[in-house]
Fold each of these.
Amino acid sequence: GISLKQQIMIGITGSLVILLKWSGVLIIPFFILCTISCRYKPFLKDRVKEACIPLSILLITVTLLLFNNFLRLGHLLPDTSALAGRYIIKPAWYYLLNFHNILIVPFLWVLFAFGFFVIFKKRSPKHQLLAIWFLVFLTGISIAQGKDLRYSLLVLPSALLISCVGISALIEYAKTQKQRGWMEILVIIVLLGIYALLLTHTQRILNRNTATSIGFQEAGQWIKKESSSQTLILASSPRLIRYYSGINFKEFGGNILLLPMDQMIFQNTIEKFRGPVLLEIDYWEKIRQPRWLYPITDNTRQYMKNLGFQQVEVVEKEIYVTGEPKQMVPVAWIFKKQ
């Protein structure tokens, strides 16, 4: 059985997961399903009895966090923009279709599938726990309307461990067939192949990111320095501005709003707000820039001036422009209305 000390440590460990990030709350349904399904004790009532203390600690942690939200933000729920699909909406099967990208190395998919087959065949408590871990977190991020590959980091540890189950089963099979030496050579080749693919893949990502989506740090830090608690911030890339400025979305106690695509809504927002307004436009998120506002031209500046805005900051970076050599160009503009 699980001792009292172990029960408390399970609850504390789960609470730390939730404190790191709100999506860690998925550990609660994971814990409940493990208690019901994993037969480490034959009788359910005995398993439920041992689960009471850890589950109570988890629920107390969530309750305290919700109460803290209410005191600081005026409402119980945290930032739910990903759940509501405010910015990046994808279908429920998005992560399944991109599972090869989650595992990073394409051929790990085969080992993962074989590992899942082994888990389904053996059905021991430890294998069931691993399967529930993967399925609960995959279901949790798939239900949320807002989806991005970076959210799939929640399922990566369990997916890799399931792949390792597949590798382990192959090694055990090789032992029974007296092919251990051959299997060890194969594992070394697979590992070297993984390292080679990861190196080139990572290098491509780094090269791409150093030449794109730059300037947000400078824009976010400038906004943080020049804004106050009374400033409304309209951003065409609100997630990145939130990240680099440390200012949250308005609905969660901050000052940042997504820049409206509709011109009349934009003007009504400006007219109704009594206070300073900062407006961020950038070079990268072109599909999110209103056509009546981007690209920035003399007509655009005149239009903004008529609304009471002045261009107060321009962030320039050296980038590759399509069909042209690398050059210094504006990548972010900030307008201000007092």
Amino acid sequence: MNTASVIKKINSGLLLLIVVYGFLWLFLGAYFSHPNAEDFSLTSAPKSEGVINAASHLLVTYDGRYFTNILHGINPMALGWLDGYKWTIAFNILFFVFSVWYFLQTLNGGKKKFQTLLLSSFFVAVHFALTPSLVHELYWLVSSFVYLYCWCFTLLWVSTLIRFYNSNSEGKKKLYFLLTSVFLVSSVGINEMMLVINAFLLAGFGLYHYYIYKREYYVLVLLSVLSFISYAFFIMCPGIRNRFSSFENEHHENHYNEIISKSLLDFSQEMFLLLSQGGIFIIYFIIVLVGFKDVLTLNLKLPSLSFRNRIFCVLACFVAVYLMIYAFYVPMGHEEFLPHRIYTSVWTGAQLSFLVLIIVFNSFKFQLIDRVMRQYLLFVSLCLFTFLFFTQKSNIQLLKHDYISGRLEGFDMQMKERYKILSEADQRQHCRSIAILEPLKDTPRSVHNDPDIQPNRIAAYWNKAYESYFEVVEVRFSSDTITKKDLIRDLLYE
């Protein structure tokens, strides 16, 4: 066995080590994760009233995310299986891996399945290690529906549409068109930021279909009608107008100028931090470029795009990723602090755009270095990346720190004690079902974030979330000096 073959096996081992290490901590975080008050709030309604009634109420009163609102009612929490929360988080990790894998398999013609799976897993491990808010994107369930699922379903509809174009079987074409329709409608109804991304993608596929594909125009017509209906339903829902109208009083003469300057500053700051964070992403990019040349290829039966059109597609990807932030900034103005949660989806788009850039680069058949030298460069890059991934500040290291410090286990014990008290209160006579809890202490930032119950029902909405989900009369802290009964009495006297 020559040296190059040995280096190649070592490289595969290092990649597996990185993926296993990253996923070990991600799944461990899932094991210790628990719902916050908003999770209880948004799953209690479908649990007691049914999915349709709960989703309709939100569409009328709060937002237009019709598919997200459906997801609130078809997850284990809404079905009363509280321990299913952890399994859903674990499923979300695998769902993201599958979505990326399916997309890449579509582009490379289904070749090198294991290598594609390895790249997809590597992509996801690095993504979650660097994402601006791991809690919002993964461990906060109802938030993950918005910021993670939006890209999963987008990748699925793009992949099935490409497979429709690439297939010669009428039966498969009908199946792929049906799946494209379902995934497209789902993607539009998850997150308003994806309205921009989906518009770019639909426009791109429309131009390709009309000027290059030049057949089966009924597909173009049907997808256009379906997209128009989905967009119109999302935008015209009373809930989203009610929600955004509350911000109109904050608008003033220089409102849009401030939005542009603030969004540019936030975007530049967030992207700089992500791309430069300990050098992890830079080395990751080199590894993907050098180590997965045979995976990141276009192997389709379709007419290919010209050089100019390929470059234009890459630029359009990055432009669309930037423009998606305005779905947040325009209606909501800007927050005092950088809204890290929205940049989780932006980061996904940026990372995928870099993959598209590499695929386009590889399609030009450049041979900068030979295969042997590529393996040596990959070995050096992987060694450096392994060191950085195991030592530099990242979400993976935060999970590790919270576990070693005992925060994850302590949080788990506190939440289980809450469930025990709430369960015992639920078993009493309804008029006496009062659950007296303790405030959470030293919560792990890696897997948990507010909102939670506040002392003296300062934010009574979150008390009601627990009360509704666990079907108890009152939830309060042992240190509270104001009870639900006191507030009702004061309200009646007013």
Amino acid sequence: MNKHYVLYAITAGLGMLPMVTNATTTTVAAGTTVTSTQNVSANNSLIVFGTINISGGSPTAIHATGNSATVTINDGALIYGSIVSNNGQTNDRLYLNYNSGSSYVLNTTGPWTIVDYSQGLQTPQTGKVAGIGAQETADKMMFQRTTLFNSSLAERLAQPSGFAAPWMSIYHGTISRSTNSNITQESPFNSTARGLTIGAPIEHTYNPMDFVFNIQTDHEKIAESRHLVKFTNFFAGVLAPGLYDYVGGRVSGKLFIGFNKHDGTRTVFNDSGSTTSLGKYHSLLVLAGLEERWSMNITKKIIWTFLTGADLVEEHQKWHYETLYFSWKTRRTLMLSGKLEGNLRYQAPENLWSAWGTVSLMKYKLLSGKRFIYQVNGGAENTIALNNKRDNYIKLQAGADYDVLSFMKINASLEWMRSRHHIHQCQGHIGIMFDD
């Protein structure tokens, strides 16, 4: 542990620490473990990246012994013991610079002024904060689930509206966001999803309709796996490929009810280093959408199709408690998304096979659910307002289908997506269409 005299300013999240002149700064570096109480005297500073591990019955890890002491605890630091400021002292400051996906319940005593930079200067400043990774990414995961599901419907919708035979689609997708400068509300995460969609006609004479069932699982890792969430999502409902037909085009519609089961595991930094809290809850969803497509033959075998569509998705998440520390109030999320899409398809002679490419522009916006509320040990409510409530995507897709038997066609496609907020999404689909 090195001590040195500096003139310094530390930028952390949304603000800047005060400038301290002719003061001693002690740093516990990343990967370093110290086993003695870190005393911070008047006008001096302690910066912690590593571990302070104090043994004993009621250990004190950090002790401010004079006025205007400054302590900064950074993301990844482990503190075994309490953080103490003597009664009667003034202007002792504790700056918490964790990633927004990190959770911490620190044991602080005395007249500290606590500033939680990790989530946009929450109030009250208590040093007891739940990582908001799963809540901040909820709209991204909702958009991913509906995007994957909608892509599994795409080849069915590309068939003539009077098509009346069973079909299915199997898919796999990944979504990720790397670390960026805005750690205050954007944690790095990655998620892997896989799903199965099955459809069968229930009406094909006057107004073609399919009954559709979907199951999808997601495994999301947030902030270097400090928060893990497993989703199991079910959709069931009706797809109407020919809601309205006109010369050269048609309008399709869909209506689905969903159930989403969440299983979360959260690492919480506390005065024992860290512990694990579990959260199990469920949510209900409704998905409704319309799509219009218009097609024209460029040549006898090359077809250009233009699509536009919109979806409205609502998710209702019930109030739930985790096994340690945190409880989350009911949250209703309403999302509107839209797309513009161009598709170019080549149809081989005798319709034996076809291949296509697609370019899409997509956008979503949160209409509600921009705020969420939680409590720590039943105490004061913490309200978080998201700063990213919308996003724009570009999607590229390539696919092909082939008649493998007289009564069955297999199709496959690959998709790549990127958003304005640095989210990458890749997915693949394999489907089967039975001839009607």
